[in-house]
Amino acid sequence: MTSCISAQDVLKRLKLCGCINITGRGLNPLRGSVVLEQIDLSLVGKHENPEIVDLHSKISQELVISILDSIISSDGCSLKYIKFPQEWRGNGMYGLTMEFRERYIRSFDERGLSCTRCNEALLKTNATTWMSVYGYQNKMCYDCLKPFCENNRCIDNEDSFIKFCHYCEKDYCFDCSPFATCAGCDEFACQGCSGRCDGCDKTWCKGCPNMFRCVICEKTVCTKCSAYEESYMRECPSDDFACEPCNERLW
Q1: How many C-beta atoms lie closer than 10 Å to residue 56's C-beta?
Q2: Residues paired with 74 in a beta bridge
Q3: Which of 167, 172, 169 is nearest to 155 (CA)?
Q4: What is the dihedral angle through the alpha carbons of 238, 205, 51, 243, rounded to the nearest 10 degrees?
Q5: pLDDT value at position 127?
Q6: Rounded Cα–Cα distance for residues 39 and 104 (Å)
Q7: Helices 61-72 + 96-111 axis angle, to 10
Q8: Nearest-CA neighbor of 142 among 72, 190, 100, 77?
Q9: Measured between alpha carbons, how far is 216 from 93 in angstroms, rounded to an integer?
Q10: How far is residue 62's CA from residue 60's CA, in Å, rounded to a whole number?
């Protein structure tokens, strides 16, 4: 497919959501691309948690790193955002991926990019701005790809212009996704990873241990309001939860 559309010259964003059988050979046409801006190899969807979605990547680390190296070493490189598969993160970030991380950071330094909010230069001292040791990029909006610096007013506080969603592990600026604070765990959640309790109308994040959603009627309630006691959420054989009226249908 990448060959048919002349991907090296036209493809700006590539997201391999659910593509569990891809090994990386089909990405060869991207070698030396100067138009590719974003590549997401994590296999998960936009508002999915990579630690919960049980997907195992078949992508060749050696092959993909060589393709990415050819891109960042090209004059006029546009690559701004990389997200690696879950298996490459943590301990997997050593070796090839860790070495590439350092080269990738240097490529940003050479381009002289500046913060979208305060226009301060993004210096080498802000190296973690571009790729954390855990294999995902931060301080850059996943949607619009605008970068932000380490200034406290630009990131990570109530008045910041970009926040990290702890559920989907992506950063979004306020122009692309409003954020909410979960009433149960106090974590920030982007618009796609948060919702409201049908009982008390407070905002909760996906995956919060104090929030339950009926697998049948999709009623969502928290443990902190009367609606929880009234609906009496119970765990069913499939490890999902169902409210009392729906529960009998699952047994």
Answers
A1: 9
A2: none
A3: 172
A4: 0
A5: 47
A6: 13
A7: 10
A8: 190
A9: 40
A10: 6
Alpha helices in 11-95 (DSSP H): 61-72
The DSSP secondary-structure symbol of 109 reads: H
Residue corresponding to tokens 């929880």? 228
Burial of 75 (0-12, 13-18, 19+ CB in 10 A): exposed
Residues 103/105/110/113 CA torsion (nearest 10 deg):
160
Q: How far is CA 131 from each of CA 2, 16, 101, 140, 205, rounded to the nearest angstrom?
A: 26, 19, 7, 10, 25
Single-letter amino acid code for the residue at 108: F
Distance of alpha carbon 5 from alpha carbon 216, whole angstroms? 42
Neighbours of 164 (CB within 10 A): 20
Q: What is the pTM of this model?
A: 0.80
Model confidence at 234, pLDDT cuts 50, 70, 90, reads low
Query: Three-class SS of residue 221?
Result: strand
Mean pLDDT, rounded, of the chain: 79
Chain length of the chain: 251
Phi and psi at 13, nearest 5°, equal -135, 135
On the 0-12 / 13-18 / 19+ scale of CB atoms within 10 A, 168 is: buried
For residue 247, pLDDT beyond 80: no
Torsion angle of the four alpha carbons 164, 170, 173, 176, in this order, in degrees rounded to the nearest 10: -140
Instruction: Summarize pLDDT for 56-89 with one digit per residue, the tens.
Output: 788 888 899 999 999 999 988 999 899 888 777 6
Phi, psi of 94 (to 5 degrees): -80, 170
Q: What is the DSSP string of 66-104?
A: HHHHHHHTSTT----EEE--GGGSGGGGSTHHHHHHHHH
Amino acid letter for position 44: V
